[in-house]
Specification:
CATH architecture: 3-Layer(aba) Sandwich
Structural class: alpha/beta
Number of strands: 7
Shape: globular
Number of domains: 1
Strand content: 25-35%
């Protein structure tokens, strides 16, 4: 598969990284992200609403609201590998203890909680989609955005995010799995600024960086060509 897009704006947040200069410095000399570093505080999401969300969803919604205010977007696509795994684990733990469930936790445990909160808080009546596709969640979300643009939408906001994985699951996952809250927002338009081609791969790799942050690092370094690893494909990107 081949497709191309244009990135007209971006914003990102992760522990210890918030401003554009923070991210540019990190991209020029990548370092492991320390989960114990502070995460950007919400600037656009009301506190009462922010408290209902996990850390990754919270920053994803806040970035989404910021970019919606700056740009007239036609659609939202949110992608996350684990979604509201923290809240789902809390529900399972509560069931195991045969305790009473929290209606708020239950209501915010669905995979589209972040994108739904964005449309509600931003009072934005927009087409919205929530994507979950394992390690390829970001790439599949990009394809969704490309299809929306091809269908006539002029500007689409993509937000890829995740939260920390509960300790209970860590022994079942690769040791180098990224495990910290983060979010990347991209404002996308139709164009051929950067092109992607899927390549078959027989290797099953477990990158130590989320696809979206690896994409951002290469984008900020203005790399002419780079590859992102996925579940069964490698995604070859070429900058025009």
């Amino acid at each position: 598969m081949e497709f191309s897009i244009r990135v007209s704006d971006w914003q990102a947040a992760a522990p210890g990284l918030s401003s554009r200069q923070d991210w540019q410095t990190w991209a020029d000399s990548p370092r492991p992200i320390n989960p114990s570093d502070s995460l950007r505080k919400c600037q656009h999401l009301p506190m009462m609403m922010a408290r209902r969300l996990s850390a990754g969803s919270r920053v994803a919604v806040d970035l989404g609201l910021e970019l919606i205010q700056k740009h007239r977007v036609d659609a939202l696509v949110y992608s996350s590998r684990h979604g509201e795994l923290e809240k789902n684990y809390r529900i399972l733990e509560t069931l195991h203890k045969q305790a009473e469930q929290s209606p708020t936790v239950f209501a915010m445990s669905v995979h589209n909680a972040a994108v739904g909160t964005t449309t509600i808080s931003g009072k934005a009546e927009l087409t919205s989609t929530a994507i979950a596709a394992g390690r390829d969640s970001f790439q599949q979300a990009l394809i969704e955005c490309y299809l929306l643009l091809a269908d006539g939408y002029s500007r689409v906001l993509l937000v890829d995010y995740d939260s920390s994985v509960p300790d209970f699951y860590l022994s079942h996952l690769p040791k180098n799995l990224p495990n910290y809250p983060y979010a990347l927002g991209l404002v996308l338009e139709a164009g051929k600024d950067i092109c992607c081609q899927s390549l078959n791969s027989t290797e099953s790799l477990h990158p130590d960086m989320p696809q979206s942050l690896a994409f951002l690092a290469a984008w900020l370094k203005q790399s002419k060509a780079f590859t992102l690893d996925g579940e069964q494909n490698r995604w070859q990107w070429t900058r025009q």
